[in-house]
């Protein structure tokens, strides 16, 4: 097992920060106790149990898949844990916004997968280095359970051509797959215990295979940006300031939800989703995949 990234007072060292910029990823980083990770798992599983058939305008899977922090208070709480933000600050600096918090869940013995891709392909943000993803394990992420694989230093390339597959088993919005030949030896498996996280750059090529284990593979995935990021495809975009300040003004800010799925937070969710669809679905007429 890979030894945990050393932290001093909860912060990354210069060497670890340099490793992130060299490799395009960093792991494993201890940010939550196993008990705390288990408690967050219990909360998302309670939502799955209690809100599956609840008359919301969108399927529960959509709310889990993107912007969960907008409608679920415990997800906002998770994404703003000081232990996580202290590490993110080492990559992005003092001003931090949440762009989206998402659940990537593969059930036990499921053939769901994530094709190899670069996150920034359809986000309308160009090739910014001021977005970092924190992938927080709420259950064991192992090669058996379908942990992510990263291609080292692939973030140094441009956005590469992707092909949309819209495959039902693919957890991505349009089933996009990067059109390069990624060989098994190019992949680093990102094995994480509950409460550990990995970081990856928005251009790092990554994906994951099926879950052949007996447990669900559950990750809370948070995309953090700086205020300097700009949305170049959609007409407007949204983010939450969670540390420091936004002195740039590229994003509309909104408040965390007061309770699960309040009418106000669901309305805000719909507003953000409608605005982002223009970037997320640019160049395709197929609508079925958006945040499904
Ligand atoms: O959870 C996975 O397997 C993939 C997640 C992913 O693509 C991402 O966090 O950008």
Gross CATH architecture: Sandwich
Major sheet details: 7 strands, mixed
Mean pLDDT: 94
Low-confidence stretches: none
The total beta strand count reads 15
CATH topology (level 3) name: Jelly Rolls
Which structural class do the helices and strands define? alpha+beta
Give the helix level as a range of percent.
25-40%
Q: Which sequence of strands runs across the widest sheet?
A: 3-11-6-13-4-14-15
Which radius of gyration do the C-alpha atoms yield?
18 Å
Strand percentage, roughly? Answer: 15-25%
Write down the CATH class: Mainly Beta
Short recap of the structure:
This protein has helices at residues 14-23, 34-50, 60-65, 68-71, 73-79, 82-92, 263-280; strands at 7-8, 11-12, 25-30, 96-106, 114-117, 131-137, 148-151, 162-164, 176-178, 187-189, 196-201, 206-208, 217-225, 238-243, 252-253. The protein is α+β, with helices and mostly antiparallel strands and 292 residues long.
Q: Secondary-structure blueprint of this entry?
A:
Blueprint: E1 7-8, E2 11-12, H1 14-23, E3 25-30, H2 34-50, H3 60-65, H4 68-71, H5 73-79, H6 82-92, E4 96-106, E5 114-117, E6 131-137, E7 148-151, E8 162-164, E9 176-178, E10 187-189, E11 196-201, E12 206-208, E13 217-225, E14 238-243, E15 252-253, H7 263-280
Parallel strand pairs: 14-15
Antiparallel strand pairs: 1-2, 3-11, 4-13, 4-14, 5-12, 6-11, 6-13, 7-10, 7-12, 8-9
């Amino acid at each position: 097992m890979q030894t945990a990234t050393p932290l001093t007072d909860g912060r990354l060292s210069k060497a670890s920060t340099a490793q992130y910029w060299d490799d395009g990823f960093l792991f494993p980083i201890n940010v939550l106790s196993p008990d705390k990770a288990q408690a967050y798992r219990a909360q998302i599983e309670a939502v799955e149990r209690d809100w599956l058939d609840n008359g919301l305008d969108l399927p529960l899977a959509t709310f889990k898949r993107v912007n969960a922090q907008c409608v679920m208070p415990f997800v906002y709480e998770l994404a703003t844990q000081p232990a996580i933000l202290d590490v993110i600050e080492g990559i992005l600096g003092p001003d931090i916004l949440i762009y989206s918090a998402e659940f990537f869940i593969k059930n036990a013995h499921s053939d769901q997968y994530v094709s190899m891709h670069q996150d920034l392909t359809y986000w309308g943000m160009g090739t910014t280095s001021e977005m970092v993803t924190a992938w927080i394990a709420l259950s064991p992420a192992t090669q058996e359970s379908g942990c992510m694989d990263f291609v080292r230093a692939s973030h140094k390339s441009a956005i590469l051509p992707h092909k949309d597959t819209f495959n039902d088993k693919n957890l991505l919005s349009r089933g996009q797959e990067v059109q390069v030949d990624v060989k098994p030896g190019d992949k680093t498996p990102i094995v994480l215990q509950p409460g550990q996280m990995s970081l990856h750059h928005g251009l790092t090529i990554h994906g994951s295979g099926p879950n052949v284990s007996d447990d669900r593979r559950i990750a809370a995935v948070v995309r953090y940006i700086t205020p300097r990021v700009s949305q170049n495809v959609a007409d407007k975009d949204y983010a939450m300031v969670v540390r420091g300040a936004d002195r740039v003004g590229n994003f509309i800010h909104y408040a965390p939800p007061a309770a699960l799925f309040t009418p106000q937070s669901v309305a805000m969710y719909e507003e953000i989703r409608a605005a982002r669809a223009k970037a997320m679905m640019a160049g395709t007429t197929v609508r079925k995949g958006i945040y499904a």
